[in-house]
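Appendix B. Extra example for self-study. Work through it before the problem class; the solution is given directly after the inputs so you can check yourself.
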Amino acid sequence: MPRFHDLEVTDIHKTIRDAVVVTLKPVNGAAAEFDFTQGQYLTFRRDFDGQELRRSYSICAGKNDGVLQVGIKKVDGGAFSTWANEDLKVGDTLQAMPPMGNFFTALTPEADNSYLGFAGGSGITPVLSIIKTTLEAEPNARFTLVYANKGVNTIMFREELEDLKNTYLGRFSVIHILESDAQEIDLFTGLVTPEKCAELFGSGWLDVKAAKTAFICGPEPMMLGIAQALKDHGMDEAQIKFELFAGNQPGRAPQRAAASAATGGAKTATITLDGATRTVEMDPTQTVLQAALINNLDAPYACSAGVCSTCRCRVLEGEVEMAANHALEDYEIEKGYVLSCQAFPVSDKVVVDYDQ
Amino acid sequence: MTSDTMSIERYLAQGGKLSAPENVPPRYRAELMKLMASFVDSSLAGAAGFADVINAGPGIKERIAAAKIVLKKTDHADRVLRIMAGFGTDTARYANAHPWAARLPRDADIGTQRSEQDMRLAVFNYPLAGWGDAVVMNLLMGLAVGVQLEEMGRISYQPLAEVFREIASRERRHTELAIEGLERLIAEGEASALQTSVTYWRPRVAASFGQEHSEKFERLQALGLRHTPNAALRTRWEDEAASVLTQMGLSA
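Solution. C-alpha coordinates for the complete assembly:
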Protein backbone atom coordinates (compact mmCIF):
# COMPACT_ATOMS: atom_id res chain seq x y z
CA MET A 1 0.00 0.00 0.00
CA PRO A 2 1.40 3.46 -0.90
CA ARG A 3 2.66 5.53 1.98
CA PHE A 4 2.45 9.25 2.65
CA HIS A 5 5.64 11.27 2.53
CA ASP A 6 6.54 14.77 3.68
CA LEU A 7 6.98 17.40 0.98
CA GLU A 8 8.26 20.90 1.56
CA VAL A 9 6.62 23.83 -0.18
CA THR A 10 9.46 25.67 -1.95
CA ASP A 11 7.35 28.06 -3.98
CA ILE A 12 3.74 29.10 -4.25
CA HIS A 13 2.29 31.58 -6.70
CA LYS A 14 -1.08 32.48 -8.17
CA THR A 15 -1.74 31.60 -11.80
CA ILE A 16 -5.15 33.29 -11.71
CA ARG A 17 -7.09 34.96 -8.90
CA ASP A 18 -8.36 31.72 -7.37
CA ALA A 19 -5.74 29.14 -8.28
CA VAL A 20 -2.22 28.54 -7.03
CA VAL A 21 0.74 26.65 -8.40
CA VAL A 22 2.58 24.90 -5.57
CA THR A 23 6.16 23.70 -5.99
CA LEU A 24 7.12 20.82 -3.75
CA LYS A 25 10.31 19.14 -2.70
CA PRO A 26 10.27 15.65 -1.21
CA VAL A 27 12.20 15.47 2.07
CA ASN A 28 13.68 12.55 4.04
CA GLY A 29 15.15 10.94 0.92
CA ALA A 30 11.81 10.27 -0.76
CA ALA A 31 12.74 12.01 -4.04
CA ALA A 32 12.89 8.79 -6.07
CA GLU A 33 9.33 7.92 -5.10
CA PHE A 34 8.10 11.17 -6.61
CA ASP A 35 9.60 10.55 -10.03
CA PHE A 36 6.29 11.02 -11.88
CA THR A 37 4.95 10.31 -15.33
CA GLN A 38 3.28 13.20 -17.19
CA GLY A 39 -0.45 13.44 -16.42
CA GLN A 40 -0.26 11.86 -12.98
CA TYR A 41 -1.65 13.30 -9.74
CA LEU A 42 -0.71 13.51 -6.08
CA THR A 43 -3.07 12.64 -3.24
CA PHE A 44 -2.64 14.89 -0.23
CA ARG A 45 -3.94 14.45 3.28
CA ARG A 46 -4.52 16.97 6.02
CA ASP A 47 -6.49 17.19 9.23
CA PHE A 48 -9.36 19.66 9.31
CA ASP A 49 -11.06 19.94 12.71
CA GLY A 50 -9.84 16.51 13.74
CA GLN A 51 -10.96 14.83 10.55
CA GLU A 52 -8.62 13.72 7.83
CA LEU A 53 -9.36 14.97 4.34
CA ARG A 54 -7.71 13.54 1.23
CA ARG A 55 -7.61 15.45 -2.01
CA SER A 56 -5.93 14.72 -5.31
CA TYR A 57 -4.38 17.37 -7.54
CA SER A 58 -2.72 16.86 -10.89
CA ILE A 59 0.92 17.59 -11.51
CA CYS A 60 1.30 20.47 -13.98
CA ALA A 61 5.09 20.24 -14.49
CA GLY A 62 6.64 18.44 -17.42
CA LYS A 63 8.62 15.32 -16.71
CA ASN A 64 11.94 17.01 -17.45
CA ASP A 65 11.21 20.37 -15.85
CA GLY A 66 13.14 19.25 -12.80
CA VAL A 67 10.39 20.32 -10.40
CA LEU A 68 7.34 18.81 -8.80
CA GLN A 69 4.42 21.21 -9.19
CA VAL A 70 0.68 20.91 -8.74
CA GLY A 71 -2.09 23.33 -9.61
CA ILE A 72 -4.83 23.85 -7.02
CA LYS A 73 -7.94 25.76 -7.96
CA LYS A 74 -10.17 26.99 -5.18
CA VAL A 75 -13.48 25.16 -5.10
CA ASP A 76 -16.49 26.79 -3.38
CA GLY A 77 -16.77 25.27 0.08
CA GLY A 78 -13.71 23.08 -0.49
CA ALA A 79 -11.73 22.96 2.75
CA PHE A 80 -8.44 21.80 1.24
CA SER A 81 -8.38 24.00 -1.85
CA THR A 82 -9.40 27.09 0.13
CA TRP A 83 -6.69 26.41 2.68
CA ALA A 84 -4.09 25.88 -0.06
CA ASN A 85 -5.10 29.13 -1.78
CA GLU A 86 -5.31 31.27 1.36
CA ASP A 87 -3.06 29.88 4.07
CA LEU A 88 -0.38 27.69 2.55
CA LYS A 89 3.11 29.27 2.67
CA VAL A 90 6.63 28.59 1.47
CA GLY A 91 8.38 26.42 4.05
CA ASP A 92 5.20 24.55 5.05
CA THR A 93 5.14 20.77 4.91
CA LEU A 94 2.48 18.84 3.02
CA GLN A 95 1.91 15.10 3.05
CA ALA A 96 1.28 13.23 -0.17
CA MET A 97 1.35 9.74 -1.59
CA PRO A 98 3.67 9.01 -4.52
CA PRO A 99 2.28 9.98 -7.96
CA MET A 100 -0.61 7.89 -9.26
CA GLY A 101 -2.83 7.79 -12.30
CA ASN A 102 -2.85 6.49 -15.84
CA PHE A 103 -3.61 9.63 -17.81
CA PHE A 104 -0.71 9.22 -20.24
CA THR A 105 0.55 7.18 -23.16
CA ALA A 106 4.06 5.88 -23.79
CA LEU A 107 6.33 8.28 -25.71
CA THR A 108 8.63 7.31 -28.58
CA PRO A 109 11.27 9.90 -29.54
CA GLU A 110 11.50 8.85 -33.21
CA ALA A 111 7.72 8.83 -33.74
CA ASP A 112 5.85 11.34 -35.86
CA ASN A 113 2.73 11.67 -33.73
CA SER A 114 -0.07 14.16 -33.63
CA TYR A 115 -2.06 14.66 -30.43
CA LEU A 116 -5.21 16.46 -29.36
CA GLY A 117 -5.83 17.85 -25.90
CA PHE A 118 -9.13 19.12 -24.50
CA ALA A 119 -9.19 20.86 -21.15
CA GLY A 120 -11.91 22.67 -19.24
CA GLY A 121 -10.89 25.12 -16.49
CA SER A 122 -8.49 23.53 -14.01
CA GLY A 123 -8.60 20.39 -16.15
CA ILE A 124 -5.62 22.01 -17.88
CA THR A 125 -3.29 20.91 -15.06
CA PRO A 126 -2.50 17.32 -16.17
CA VAL A 127 -2.86 18.25 -19.86
CA LEU A 128 -0.16 20.91 -19.45
CA SER A 129 2.19 18.28 -18.02
CA ILE A 130 1.44 16.02 -20.98
CA ILE A 131 1.96 18.80 -23.53
CA LYS A 132 5.32 19.91 -22.11
CA THR A 133 6.63 16.37 -21.74
CA THR A 134 5.44 15.18 -25.14
CA LEU A 135 6.78 18.10 -27.16
CA GLU A 136 10.16 17.69 -25.53
CA ALA A 137 10.38 13.90 -25.69
CA GLU A 138 9.03 13.52 -29.23
CA PRO A 139 10.82 16.15 -31.39
CA ASN A 140 8.46 15.54 -34.33
CA ALA A 141 5.24 15.53 -32.33
CA ARG A 142 2.46 18.02 -32.93
CA PHE A 143 -0.05 18.96 -30.24
CA THR A 144 -3.28 20.93 -30.54
CA LEU A 145 -5.01 22.05 -27.36
CA VAL A 146 -8.65 23.12 -27.10
CA TYR A 147 -8.97 24.96 -23.82
CA ALA A 148 -12.38 25.96 -22.47
CA ASN A 149 -12.85 28.69 -19.89
CA LYS A 150 -15.48 31.13 -18.72
CA GLY A 151 -13.51 34.21 -19.69
CA VAL A 152 -10.00 35.51 -20.29
CA ASN A 153 -9.33 36.14 -16.59
CA THR A 154 -10.03 32.53 -15.60
CA ILE A 155 -7.51 30.97 -17.99
CA MET A 156 -4.98 29.09 -15.85
CA PHE A 157 -1.39 28.96 -17.20
CA ARG A 158 -2.20 31.42 -19.98
CA GLU A 159 1.29 32.87 -20.21
CA GLU A 160 2.92 29.49 -19.90
CA LEU A 161 0.90 28.25 -22.87
CA GLU A 162 1.96 31.31 -24.90
CA ASP A 163 5.58 30.57 -24.05
CA LEU A 164 5.16 26.99 -25.19
CA LYS A 165 3.76 28.21 -28.52
CA ASN A 166 6.92 30.24 -29.03
CA THR A 167 9.26 27.48 -27.91
CA TYR A 168 7.61 24.90 -30.15
CA LEU A 169 6.71 27.08 -33.09
CA GLY A 170 4.55 25.22 -35.60
CA ARG A 171 4.25 22.16 -33.38
CA PHE A 172 1.97 23.46 -30.67
CA SER A 173 -1.26 25.40 -31.06
CA VAL A 174 -3.97 26.46 -28.62
CA ILE A 175 -7.58 27.25 -29.34
CA HIS A 176 -9.19 29.14 -26.47
CA ILE A 177 -12.95 28.66 -26.29
CA LEU A 178 -14.48 31.27 -23.98
CA GLU A 179 -17.98 30.96 -22.64
CA SER A 180 -18.72 34.62 -22.01
CA ASP A 181 -15.98 36.73 -23.60
CA ALA A 182 -16.45 37.44 -27.29
CA GLN A 183 -13.54 36.62 -29.61
CA GLU A 184 -12.62 37.58 -33.17
CA ILE A 185 -13.79 34.24 -34.44
CA ASP A 186 -17.39 33.37 -33.51
CA LEU A 187 -16.57 29.69 -33.47
CA PHE A 188 -14.37 30.25 -30.41
CA THR A 189 -17.15 31.62 -28.22
CA GLY A 190 -19.59 29.52 -26.21
CA LEU A 191 -19.49 26.06 -24.72
CA VAL A 192 -17.52 23.08 -25.95
CA THR A 193 -20.48 20.97 -27.00
CA PRO A 194 -20.50 18.06 -29.49
CA GLU A 195 -21.82 20.54 -32.08
CA LYS A 196 -18.99 22.95 -31.40
CA CYS A 197 -16.50 20.10 -31.71
CA ALA A 198 -18.06 18.99 -34.99
CA GLU A 199 -17.62 22.53 -36.34
CA LEU A 200 -14.00 22.65 -35.17
CA PHE A 201 -13.24 19.27 -36.70
CA GLY A 202 -15.06 20.12 -39.91
CA SER A 203 -13.43 23.54 -40.33
CA GLY A 204 -9.90 22.18 -40.35
CA TRP A 205 -8.83 23.70 -37.02
CA LEU A 206 -8.21 20.20 -35.76
CA ASP A 207 -7.31 17.05 -37.64
CA VAL A 208 -8.99 14.18 -35.83
CA LYS A 209 -8.01 11.58 -38.43
CA ALA A 210 -4.29 12.30 -38.03
CA ALA A 211 -4.37 12.20 -34.22
CA LYS A 212 -2.93 9.26 -32.38
CA THR A 213 -4.45 10.06 -29.01
CA ALA A 214 -6.87 12.61 -27.55
CA PHE A 215 -6.52 13.62 -23.89
CA ILE A 216 -9.64 15.04 -22.21
CA CYS A 217 -9.88 16.55 -18.74
CA GLY A 218 -12.72 18.75 -17.60
CA PRO A 219 -16.28 18.69 -16.28
CA GLU A 220 -18.22 15.52 -17.05
CA PRO A 221 -20.73 16.88 -19.60
CA MET A 222 -17.90 18.46 -21.57
CA MET A 223 -15.88 15.24 -21.59
CA LEU A 224 -18.88 13.22 -22.78
CA GLY A 225 -19.64 15.66 -25.59
CA ILE A 226 -16.04 15.75 -26.81
CA ALA A 227 -15.65 11.98 -26.67
CA GLN A 228 -18.85 11.55 -28.64
CA ALA A 229 -17.76 14.04 -31.28
CA LEU A 230 -14.34 12.35 -31.58
CA LYS A 231 -15.97 8.95 -32.03
CA ASP A 232 -18.37 10.40 -34.60
CA HIS A 233 -15.31 11.57 -36.51
CA GLY A 234 -13.76 8.13 -36.61
CA MET A 235 -11.66 8.00 -33.46
CA ASP A 236 -11.55 4.67 -31.68
CA GLU A 237 -12.49 4.48 -28.00
CA ALA A 238 -9.01 3.17 -27.14
CA GLN A 239 -7.46 6.40 -28.49
CA ILE A 240 -9.38 8.60 -26.06
CA LYS A 241 -7.91 9.17 -22.61
CA PHE A 242 -10.14 10.65 -19.91
CA GLU A 243 -9.20 12.19 -16.61
CA LEU A 244 -11.97 13.13 -14.25
CA PHE A 245 -11.68 16.36 -12.36
CA ALA A 246 -10.27 16.35 -8.89
CA GLY A 247 -13.34 18.41 -8.00
CA ASN A 248 -15.49 15.34 -8.28
CA GLN A 249 -14.50 13.86 -4.99
CA PRO A 250 -16.76 12.87 -2.13
CA GLY A 251 -17.36 15.70 0.31
CA ARG A 252 -16.79 15.69 3.99
CA ALA A 253 -18.28 12.74 5.81
CA PRO A 254 -20.66 13.10 8.77
CA GLN A 255 -19.43 11.83 12.11
CA ARG A 256 -20.00 8.23 13.05
CA ALA A 257 -22.97 7.67 15.37
CA ALA A 258 -22.26 6.64 18.96
CA ALA A 259 -22.36 2.93 19.76
CA SER A 260 -25.19 1.63 21.91
CA ALA A 261 -24.60 -0.65 24.88
CA ALA A 262 -23.53 -4.19 24.03
CA THR A 263 -25.05 -7.39 25.35
CA GLY A 264 -25.02 -11.05 24.27
CA GLY A 265 -27.79 -12.96 22.47
CA ALA A 266 -29.50 -12.39 19.14
CA LYS A 267 -28.82 -9.15 17.28
CA THR A 268 -30.55 -7.24 14.56
CA ALA A 269 -28.88 -5.76 11.54
CA THR A 270 -30.44 -3.04 9.41
CA ILE A 271 -28.79 -3.19 6.02
CA THR A 272 -29.05 -0.67 3.21
CA LEU A 273 -28.07 -1.87 -0.24
CA ASP A 274 -28.93 -0.35 -3.62
CA GLY A 275 -31.26 2.15 -2.00
CA ALA A 276 -33.38 -0.47 -0.19
CA THR A 277 -33.21 -1.05 3.57
CA ARG A 278 -34.02 -4.28 5.38
CA THR A 279 -33.80 -5.32 9.01
CA VAL A 280 -32.76 -8.91 9.68
CA GLU A 281 -32.12 -11.03 12.75
CA MET A 282 -28.58 -12.18 13.16
CA ASP A 283 -26.56 -14.50 15.28
CA PRO A 284 -23.58 -12.95 17.11
CA THR A 285 -21.34 -15.56 15.50
CA GLN A 286 -22.32 -14.36 12.02
CA THR A 287 -20.61 -11.59 10.15
CA VAL A 288 -22.64 -8.71 8.76
CA LEU A 289 -21.89 -10.05 5.27
CA GLN A 290 -23.18 -13.53 6.14
CA ALA A 291 -26.35 -12.03 7.63
CA ALA A 292 -26.93 -10.12 4.40
CA LEU A 293 -26.27 -13.10 2.13
CA ILE A 294 -28.40 -15.53 4.16
CA ASN A 295 -31.27 -13.08 3.78
CA ASN A 296 -30.82 -12.96 0.01
CA LEU A 297 -29.32 -9.50 -0.09
CA ASP A 298 -26.83 -9.25 -2.93
CA ALA A 299 -24.09 -7.73 -0.79
CA PRO A 300 -20.73 -7.30 -2.52
CA TYR A 301 -17.81 -9.47 -1.50
CA ALA A 302 -14.90 -11.34 -3.02
CA CYS A 303 -12.07 -12.69 -0.87
CA SER A 304 -13.97 -13.15 2.45
CA ALA A 305 -10.59 -12.89 4.13
CA GLY A 306 -10.40 -9.19 4.98
CA VAL A 307 -7.91 -8.63 2.20
CA CYS A 308 -9.62 -7.20 -0.87
CA SER A 309 -12.08 -4.61 0.59
CA THR A 310 -14.87 -5.39 -1.89
CA CYS A 311 -17.35 -5.91 0.99
CA ARG A 312 -16.72 -2.48 2.54
CA CYS A 313 -19.77 -0.89 4.16
CA ARG A 314 -20.33 1.89 6.64
CA VAL A 315 -21.61 1.46 10.19
CA LEU A 316 -24.16 4.20 10.88
CA GLU A 317 -25.36 2.96 14.25
CA GLY A 318 -24.18 0.37 16.75
CA GLU A 319 -20.82 -1.29 16.97
CA VAL A 320 -19.10 -4.17 15.23
CA GLU A 321 -15.73 -5.80 15.71
CA MET A 322 -13.52 -6.84 12.82
CA ALA A 323 -11.68 -10.15 13.10
CA ALA A 324 -9.11 -9.06 10.54
CA ASN A 325 -8.46 -5.99 8.47
CA HIS A 326 -5.77 -5.90 5.84
CA ALA A 327 -7.43 -3.43 3.51
CA LEU A 328 -8.97 -0.45 5.30
CA GLU A 329 -6.84 2.41 6.49
CA ASP A 330 -7.21 4.21 9.78
CA TYR A 331 -8.95 7.20 8.25
CA GLU A 332 -11.59 4.94 6.70
CA ILE A 333 -12.17 3.18 10.00
CA GLU A 334 -12.53 6.55 11.70
CA LYS A 335 -15.32 7.35 9.30
CA GLY A 336 -17.08 4.12 10.28
CA TYR A 337 -16.14 1.91 7.34
CA VAL A 338 -15.77 -1.79 8.06
CA LEU A 339 -15.10 -4.94 6.07
CA SER A 340 -18.46 -6.69 6.37
CA CYS A 341 -16.92 -10.15 5.83
CA GLN A 342 -14.96 -9.63 9.04
CA ALA A 343 -17.49 -7.63 11.06
CA PHE A 344 -19.23 -9.33 14.00
CA PRO A 345 -21.95 -7.41 15.85
CA VAL A 346 -21.09 -6.15 19.33
CA SER A 347 -24.16 -4.00 20.04
CA ASP A 348 -27.69 -5.47 19.92
CA LYS A 349 -28.55 -3.35 16.96
CA VAL A 350 -26.32 -2.57 14.01
CA VAL A 351 -27.19 -0.27 11.13
CA VAL A 352 -24.96 -0.51 8.06
CA ASP A 353 -25.00 1.02 4.60
CA TYR A 354 -23.30 -0.36 1.50
CA ASP A 355 -24.32 2.68 -0.55
CA GLN A 356 -22.12 5.23 1.24
CA MET B 1 -16.15 25.53 -20.21
CA THR B 2 -19.56 24.34 -19.16
CA SER B 3 -20.64 25.32 -15.71
CA ASP B 4 -23.43 22.78 -15.30
CA THR B 5 -22.56 19.89 -13.07
CA MET B 6 -23.68 16.35 -13.58
CA SER B 7 -24.13 13.44 -11.20
CA ILE B 8 -21.65 10.61 -11.57
CA GLU B 9 -24.56 8.25 -12.25
CA ARG B 10 -25.79 10.32 -15.19
CA TYR B 11 -22.27 10.74 -16.47
CA LEU B 12 -21.75 6.97 -16.42
CA ALA B 13 -25.14 6.21 -17.95
CA GLN B 14 -24.14 8.41 -20.87
CA GLY B 15 -20.89 6.58 -21.46
CA GLY B 16 -18.55 8.58 -19.23
CA LYS B 17 -15.31 7.05 -17.99
CA LEU B 18 -13.85 7.09 -14.49
CA SER B 19 -10.13 7.33 -14.06
CA ALA B 20 -9.11 6.96 -10.42
CA PRO B 21 -10.27 5.31 -7.17
CA GLU B 22 -11.05 8.79 -5.84
CA ASN B 23 -13.76 9.35 -8.47
CA VAL B 24 -15.62 6.12 -7.85
CA PRO B 25 -18.96 6.05 -5.96
CA PRO B 26 -19.46 3.27 -3.33
CA ARG B 27 -21.76 0.89 -5.21
CA TYR B 28 -19.72 1.29 -8.38
CA ARG B 29 -16.64 0.47 -6.35
CA ALA B 30 -18.28 -2.69 -5.00
CA GLU B 31 -19.35 -3.96 -8.42
CA LEU B 32 -16.01 -3.07 -9.96
CA MET B 33 -14.14 -4.89 -7.17
CA LYS B 34 -16.32 -8.00 -7.62
CA LEU B 35 -15.66 -7.97 -11.30
CA MET B 36 -11.91 -7.60 -10.83
CA ALA B 37 -11.85 -10.26 -8.09
CA SER B 38 -13.69 -12.65 -10.39
CA PHE B 39 -11.11 -12.09 -13.12
CA VAL B 40 -8.14 -12.40 -10.76
CA ASP B 41 -9.50 -15.52 -9.06
CA SER B 42 -10.35 -17.15 -12.39
CA SER B 43 -6.90 -16.37 -13.78
CA LEU B 44 -5.08 -17.65 -10.70
CA ALA B 45 -7.24 -20.77 -10.53
CA GLY B 46 -6.86 -21.33 -14.28
CA ALA B 47 -3.08 -20.95 -14.06
CA ALA B 48 -2.87 -23.26 -11.05
CA GLY B 49 -4.94 -25.91 -12.80
CA PHE B 50 -2.89 -25.66 -15.97
CA ALA B 51 0.40 -25.80 -14.07
CA ASP B 52 -0.42 -29.37 -13.13
CA VAL B 53 -0.73 -30.45 -16.75
CA ILE B 54 2.59 -29.01 -17.96
CA ASN B 55 4.26 -32.36 -17.30
CA ALA B 56 1.49 -34.19 -19.16
CA GLY B 57 2.50 -32.44 -22.40
CA PRO B 58 3.57 -35.10 -24.93
CA GLY B 59 6.66 -33.18 -26.07
CA ILE B 60 8.92 -30.27 -25.17
CA LYS B 61 7.05 -27.89 -27.47
CA GLU B 62 3.75 -28.67 -25.80
CA ARG B 63 5.26 -28.26 -22.35
CA ILE B 64 6.68 -24.87 -23.32
CA ALA B 65 3.26 -23.81 -24.64
CA ALA B 66 1.56 -24.92 -21.42
CA ALA B 67 4.17 -23.20 -19.25
CA LYS B 68 3.71 -19.99 -21.26
CA ILE B 69 -0.02 -20.09 -20.66
CA VAL B 70 0.55 -20.50 -16.91
CA LEU B 71 2.98 -17.57 -16.93
CA LYS B 72 0.65 -15.28 -18.88
CA LYS B 73 -2.43 -16.10 -16.83
CA THR B 74 -0.54 -15.39 -13.62
CA ASP B 75 0.74 -12.14 -15.10
CA HIS B 76 -2.79 -11.11 -16.10
CA ALA B 77 -3.99 -11.73 -12.55
CA ASP B 78 -1.13 -9.54 -11.32
CA ARG B 79 -2.04 -6.68 -13.65
CA VAL B 80 -5.65 -6.57 -12.47
CA LEU B 81 -4.63 -7.10 -8.86
CA ARG B 82 -2.45 -4.00 -9.15
CA ILE B 83 -5.55 -1.99 -10.04
CA MET B 84 -7.34 -3.50 -7.04
CA ALA B 85 -4.40 -2.30 -4.93
CA GLY B 86 -5.42 1.27 -5.75
CA PHE B 87 -8.68 0.55 -3.89
CA GLY B 88 -6.90 -0.79 -0.81
CA THR B 89 -6.51 -4.50 -1.57
CA ASP B 90 -3.56 -6.13 0.17
CA THR B 91 -2.16 -7.80 -2.95
CA ALA B 92 0.48 -9.96 -1.25
CA ARG B 93 -2.12 -11.55 0.99
CA TYR B 94 -4.68 -11.75 -1.76
CA ALA B 95 -2.41 -13.83 -3.98
CA ASN B 96 -2.24 -16.48 -1.28
CA ALA B 97 -5.73 -16.13 0.16
CA HIS B 98 -7.06 -19.32 -1.45
CA PRO B 99 -5.80 -22.73 -2.58
CA TRP B 100 -6.04 -21.89 -6.27
CA ALA B 101 -5.22 -25.41 -7.43
CA ALA B 102 -8.12 -26.94 -5.45
CA ARG B 103 -10.82 -28.57 -7.59
CA LEU B 104 -14.15 -30.34 -7.08
CA PRO B 105 -14.79 -33.87 -8.39
CA ARG B 106 -15.14 -34.01 -12.17
CA ASP B 107 -18.82 -35.01 -11.94
CA ALA B 108 -19.81 -32.30 -9.42
CA ASP B 109 -22.86 -30.40 -10.63
CA ILE B 110 -22.58 -26.78 -9.56
CA GLY B 111 -24.11 -24.99 -12.56
CA THR B 112 -23.09 -21.34 -12.46
CA GLN B 113 -22.45 -21.32 -8.73
CA ARG B 114 -19.21 -19.99 -7.38
CA SER B 115 -17.61 -21.60 -4.39
CA GLU B 116 -17.91 -19.88 -1.03
CA GLN B 117 -14.19 -19.37 -0.77
CA ASP B 118 -13.39 -17.39 -3.88
CA MET B 119 -14.89 -15.66 -6.90
CA ARG B 120 -13.49 -17.83 -9.69
CA LEU B 121 -15.98 -18.71 -12.43
CA ALA B 122 -17.65 -22.06 -11.79
CA VAL B 123 -15.85 -23.64 -14.74
CA PHE B 124 -12.51 -23.29 -12.90
CA ASN B 125 -13.74 -25.59 -10.14
CA TYR B 126 -13.64 -28.63 -12.44
CA PRO B 127 -10.45 -30.65 -12.74
CA LEU B 128 -8.62 -31.30 -16.00
CA ALA B 129 -8.28 -34.94 -17.05
CA GLY B 130 -4.99 -35.22 -18.88
CA TRP B 131 -3.31 -33.37 -21.73
CA GLY B 132 -5.97 -33.64 -24.47
CA ASP B 133 -8.68 -32.59 -22.04
CA ALA B 134 -6.62 -29.57 -21.00
CA VAL B 135 -6.13 -28.51 -24.62
CA VAL B 136 -9.89 -28.74 -25.31
CA MET B 137 -10.71 -26.76 -22.16
CA ASN B 138 -8.11 -24.16 -23.10
CA LEU B 139 -9.55 -23.79 -26.59
CA LEU B 140 -13.17 -23.44 -25.49
CA MET B 141 -12.33 -21.17 -22.56
CA GLY B 142 -9.84 -19.20 -24.67
CA LEU B 143 -12.57 -18.40 -27.18
CA ALA B 144 -14.95 -17.49 -24.34
CA VAL B 145 -12.37 -15.25 -22.70
CA GLY B 146 -11.84 -13.57 -26.07
CA VAL B 147 -15.52 -12.66 -26.26
CA GLN B 148 -15.64 -11.64 -22.59
CA LEU B 149 -12.50 -9.51 -22.78
CA GLU B 150 -13.86 -7.61 -25.76
CA GLU B 151 -16.82 -6.73 -23.56
CA MET B 152 -14.55 -5.89 -20.61
CA GLY B 153 -12.34 -3.70 -22.77
CA ARG B 154 -15.26 -1.25 -22.92
CA ILE B 155 -15.65 -0.99 -19.17
CA SER B 156 -16.14 2.51 -17.76
CA TYR B 157 -13.17 2.30 -15.36
CA GLN B 158 -10.54 3.38 -17.84
CA PRO B 159 -7.38 2.00 -16.16
CA LEU B 160 -9.02 -1.43 -16.10
CA ALA B 161 -10.33 -1.16 -19.66
CA GLU B 162 -6.77 -0.52 -20.80
CA VAL B 163 -5.43 -3.55 -18.94
CA PHE B 164 -8.19 -5.74 -20.38
CA ARG B 165 -7.42 -4.55 -23.92
CA GLU B 166 -3.74 -5.45 -23.44
CA ILE B 167 -4.68 -8.84 -22.05
CA ALA B 168 -7.11 -9.55 -24.90
CA SER B 169 -4.41 -9.64 -27.55
CA ARG B 170 -2.26 -11.97 -25.45
CA GLU B 171 -5.21 -14.28 -24.72
CA ARG B 172 -5.78 -14.67 -28.45
CA ARG B 173 -2.32 -16.24 -28.63
CA HIS B 174 -3.40 -18.89 -26.07
CA THR B 175 -6.30 -19.84 -28.29
CA GLU B 176 -3.98 -20.16 -31.27
CA LEU B 177 -1.72 -22.44 -29.24
CA ALA B 178 -4.75 -24.55 -28.30
CA ILE B 179 -5.81 -24.85 -31.95
CA GLU B 180 -2.28 -25.95 -32.94
CA GLY B 181 -2.24 -28.47 -30.10
CA LEU B 182 -5.64 -29.84 -31.00
CA GLU B 183 -4.70 -30.25 -34.66
CA ARG B 184 -1.65 -32.26 -33.65
CA LEU B 185 -3.70 -34.53 -31.37
CA ILE B 186 -6.28 -35.12 -34.09
CA ALA B 187 -3.55 -36.03 -36.55
CA GLU B 188 -2.40 -38.58 -34.00
CA GLY B 189 -5.86 -40.20 -33.98
CA GLU B 190 -7.13 -38.77 -30.69
CA ALA B 191 -10.38 -37.38 -32.15
CA SER B 192 -12.76 -39.60 -30.22
CA ALA B 193 -11.25 -38.82 -26.79
CA LEU B 194 -11.19 -35.13 -27.71
CA GLN B 195 -14.88 -35.26 -28.63
CA THR B 196 -15.64 -36.62 -25.15
CA SER B 197 -13.79 -33.64 -23.67
CA VAL B 198 -15.69 -31.20 -25.91
CA THR B 199 -18.98 -32.70 -24.72
CA TYR B 200 -17.82 -32.37 -21.11
CA TRP B 201 -16.48 -28.79 -21.26
CA ARG B 202 -18.90 -27.14 -23.66
CA PRO B 203 -21.87 -26.70 -21.25
CA ARG B 204 -19.53 -25.77 -18.40
CA VAL B 205 -17.82 -23.03 -20.40
CA ALA B 206 -21.25 -21.88 -21.66
CA ALA B 207 -22.34 -21.44 -18.03
CA SER B 208 -19.51 -18.95 -17.48
CA PHE B 209 -21.52 -16.40 -19.49
CA GLY B 210 -24.01 -16.21 -16.60
CA GLN B 211 -27.79 -16.22 -16.51
CA GLU B 212 -29.87 -15.58 -19.62
CA HIS B 213 -31.93 -12.85 -17.97
CA SER B 214 -30.16 -10.96 -15.30
CA GLU B 215 -31.48 -7.94 -13.42
CA LYS B 216 -27.95 -7.32 -12.39
CA PHE B 217 -26.96 -6.74 -15.99
CA GLU B 218 -29.12 -3.62 -16.17
CA ARG B 219 -27.63 -2.26 -13.01
CA LEU B 220 -24.12 -2.86 -14.31
CA GLN B 221 -25.06 -1.43 -17.69
CA ALA B 222 -26.22 1.82 -16.08
CA LEU B 223 -22.76 2.10 -14.50
CA GLY B 224 -21.00 1.38 -17.78
CA LEU B 225 -19.58 -1.83 -16.33
CA ARG B 226 -21.40 -3.98 -18.87
CA HIS B 227 -22.64 -3.34 -22.41
CA THR B 228 -23.76 -6.52 -24.16
CA PRO B 229 -26.24 -8.95 -22.54
CA ASN B 230 -25.00 -12.38 -21.41
CA ALA B 231 -27.07 -14.27 -23.97
CA ALA B 232 -25.66 -12.28 -26.90
CA LEU B 233 -22.09 -12.88 -25.73
CA ARG B 234 -22.77 -16.58 -25.29
CA THR B 235 -24.27 -16.85 -28.77
CA ARG B 236 -21.20 -15.17 -30.24
CA TRP B 237 -18.98 -17.67 -28.44
CA GLU B 238 -21.15 -20.62 -29.53
CA ASP B 239 -20.83 -19.56 -33.16
CA GLU B 240 -17.06 -19.12 -32.94
CA ALA B 241 -16.55 -22.41 -31.09
CA ALA B 242 -18.76 -24.30 -33.55
CA SER B 243 -16.84 -22.89 -36.48
CA VAL B 244 -13.41 -23.83 -35.04
CA LEU B 245 -14.51 -27.31 -33.93
CA THR B 246 -16.23 -28.12 -37.23
CA GLN B 247 -13.11 -27.15 -39.17
CA MET B 248 -11.22 -29.76 -37.16
CA GLY B 249 -13.84 -32.44 -37.71
CA LEU B 250 -15.26 -32.28 -34.17
CA SER B 251 -18.87 -31.54 -33.41
CA ALA B 252 -19.88 -28.70 -31.13
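Self-check: Chain A is about 20% helix and 30% strand. If your reasoning did not lead you there, revisit section 3.
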